[in-house]
Amino acid sequence: MQAVRKLKRAEGLTVCDIPIPEPGPHDVLVQVEATSVCGTDLHIYNWDAWSSGRLKPPLTVGHEFCGTVATMGKMVEGVAEGDYVSAESHVTCGHCFQCQTGQAHMCPNTRILGVDREGCFAEYVNVPDKVIWKNDRSKLPPEIATLQEPFGNAVFATLAHDLAGQTLCVFGCGPIGLFSVGIARASGAAAVFASDMNPFRLELARTMGARGVHNPAADGPARDWILQNNAGLGVDIVLEMSGAPAAIDSAFQVVRNGGRVTLFGIPSRPVEIDIAEKMIFKNLTVLALNGRRIFDTWYKTRWLLESGVVDLRPLITKELPLAKIEDAIGMLREGNACKIVLRPEHKTPLRRSDEAAKPATTAASNVEGQIIHP
What gap in Å lies between CA 325 and CA 92, rounded to an integer? Predict the structure, then answer.
């Protein structure tokens, strides 16, 4: 089958052919219909300090996907061939303290698809049955179903707060930040503001429901801008989704006394914060969150998307064949894309030992260059 792999400890990814994986007793083999590129994949492509310290090539990358169950191991229950599914990308151990107390998203033994084990940038992906999530094809087309995994991050971080009637500012308008803008508006926030350096992303924030957008290069300090646009008050809630040191500092400046700050973005280096002035004397509630609850967040994610109260289509910049991964990475590097969906072409039919080859199906035909939203 065709797959996108990290073959060497160096910048880049390679499109190559590898054997279709064989499912173990508790595994499900999924024919991938759509997969989407994440910022993590960009880190892996760039081979930065994080990825070079974590990954062990050769490895198929990618962790966001949806597809159809092709076959499965003999011990799998509750899943059938032909089911339309996605998967939780965090494969947890099931026996540590966190897993046994309903906090599997904090499992210290987590192995992530496309990072610690074979990923989904391929025609087929093999995943444990315990991470399978069933989709309703009539309500979630593949280009949306593949986004549930990253969207769940924003659902977890944003719905950690009571948003009804509250003012909120999102720092960092990457996909997770933009998802959060839409979730906050759908949850009854009184006003949502967004801050980023990228004009393309700021326009998407408006599309997702931001009342006002702030570009520090053009609009000056975030605190002054918020006071001017929020009746002279700081905001009730801040979601820091960028990890940029300057944005983290601004997050604690724009929140009102007694407000709430969620830190979700990952800084590339240690960040210094004046805890006394920025937190204690302001009586803040500060949350540091990561990932999403398994599978509690997935149920919330399903409702938000299936009901239509949050529409992610404006954030899908383009669909491309899987083999065009270089084009997708280039667009993301240039900053003129949000989510890019990749479609495997399925040139390799699945052959099972107990039956003749069945032709693979895909919705990937003629997707190269297709613009979903300009």
Answer: 28
Asked whether residue 295 is assigned to any structural domain, the reply reads no
Residues annotated catalytic, as ranges: 40, 43
The confidence score (pLDDT) of residue 318 equals: 98
Q: What is the pLDDT of residue 360?
A: 41
Residue 215 domain flag: yes
122 and 170 together in one domain: no
Task: Give how many domains the chain has, as a whole number.
Answer: 2
131 and 62 housed in the same domain: yes
CA distance 230 to 117: 46
**369, pLDDT greater than 60:** no
Long-range (24+ apart) CB contacts under 8 A made by 47-55 are: 47/9, 47/10, 47/11, 47/12, 49/268, 52/9, 54/115, 54/116, 55/6, 55/115
Expressed as residue numbers, the domain containing 202 is 153-288
Where b means 16+ CB within 10 Å and e means fewer, 26-50 reads ebbbbbbbbbbbbebbebbbebeee
In this prediction the pTM is 0.92
CATH number at residue 237: 3.40.50.720
CATH of the domain at 111: 3.90.180.10
User: CA 173, CA 141: separation in Å to the nearest integer?
Assistant: 24
Do 117 and 174 fall within a single domain?
no
| Tokens, residue 112 | 């992530």
Tokens standing for residue 307: 């009901």
Residue range 29-40: average pLDDT? 97
Burial tier of 52 (Cβ tally within 10 Å: 0-12, 13-18, 19+): middle
**37 beta partners:** none
